[in-house]
Amino acid sequence: MMKKLPLKLKITLWFSTMLIFLVTLSYVLVISVSNSVLLKNLRSDLIMTVEDNVDEVEYYDSLQGVIDDNDNDHYFAYKDGYVEIDDDFIGVMNGIYSVIYDESGVQIYGTDPTNKKTDGEAFSDKGLKTVYVGGKRYYIYDRRLTNRGVENMWIRGIVSHEKADEPISDVARRSMIALIVLVILGIGGGYIIAMKSLKPIKDIEEVARDISQSGDLKKRIKLGKGNDELHSLADTFDTMFDRLENSFESEKQFTNDVSHELRTPMAVIMAQCDYALSEEMTQEEYKESIELIRRQGGKMSKMITEMLEFSRIERRSEKYPVEELDFSELVENLCDDLALLKTKNIKLECEIEPGIRVKGNHMLLTRLVNNLVSNAYRYGVENGKITVTLLSNSKNAMLSVKDDGIGIAKDEQEKIFRRFYQSDPSHSSGGTGLGLSMVKEIASFHNGSVCVKSEPGQGSEFLVRIPTV
Questions:
Q1: 175 and 31 in contact (C-beta within 8 Å)?
Q2: Which end of the chain is more exposed for a tag (fewer CB within 10 A), N or C?
Q3: How far is CA 469 from CA 356, 367, 396, 444, in A?
Q4: Which CATH number goes with the domain that contains 456?
Q5: Which H/E stretch holds residue 98?
Q6: Distance of CA 354 to the CA centre of its chain
Q7: Do 336 and 412 fall into the same domain?
Q8: In angstroms, rounded to a whole number, what is the distance separating the alpha carbons of residues 372 and 403?
Q9: For residue range 354-385, what is the model confidence (pLDDT) as tens digits?
Q10: Which residues contact 330 (CB under 8 A, 6 or more apart)?
């Protein structure tokens, strides 16, 4: 049942249950504490009233000179004299009744709220008791008088427990109303907060569904500014969609590029095959046709191999494990080997700082250096010079490959790192157009970067930065 409910309703139900539980607990505690406090106050008032009345009862042998016209005191005969009940004597106040008894326990003054049903209750000086009369609870407090002439007379204070219940009922009623309003506001507010808080999840769901149904990777959630977890999640999804879109666009572009690059050698092969089949040819001509087909096939094979390598690097394939290696030694050995080529009579010079270590893949770093030096040979001038420099700072190894060749125009310096791009086709003999794009991908694979500085006619310098260990 719960599994079928919306998440915001589940949160609201859980929140409501906890709120009702806490409100109920608070209500019980309020009533319990209030009852305890009010009972304590009621008993204190009972004792205080009786104690105050003790001094308001006096005995006189004669009333001569005692009574005056403004006297509101109450007098009655007792034994051989008279008892005076001062007008400050509190007979009834706030539900507390004060009753006077003689030494034999007979009521002689005051009103008993229990209709004398507590008369049989034994007196106990300064004793507070609880008695039940007709199913009702009463508290009684006794005090024995010690003044002359009234010795052994008693004042009994009586109050009903209901006097404490009345304010408690009022507190309970007010508390109940307040707590019900609090619960309603809490549940309503909780539902609104849950609805607003979970709105980003709904937006994420809708965008994901739209992308799934339409295949449009350009859609984004775009929640706007916010520092909570859901805004962070939405930003993460938008970043993921950006990467997916770039990946699909890159894959699409890669497919188009491959199709375009393979079309030319395939067209040459097919044309040569058609020509060889349609015309009578000498053995030498057949040999030339086969050699042409072989060259184009070799070019296609090389291109496919490099494309596969490029794709593996791009996917961070496990085929390329990384390890700590001596980059200085690797570059120096490659320079020694490549210097033997002497293509276009170009001189290769090296300046290598020893002991530079990086964390990388030996084969990929070899390919990076080889591609840069080969590119310098390809676009270099006759009797020119290539300078390979490897230095380091506190964070990076810095590899520089500089030539004095034809240079690169400013508007082409960003394009040369694209796949299959060739700035000067006349110098691209044997190249596939993947060399520099592979350099960039290998640098990225090693958490590094590559850039170029060049002026037309003044040569080029490629600078690669790779973190050291």
A1: yes
A2: N
A3: 9, 21, 9, 16
A4: 3.30.565.10
A5: strand 96-101
A6: 48
A7: yes
A8: 10
A9: 999 999 999 899 999 999 999 999 889 999 99
A10: 362, 365, 366, 369
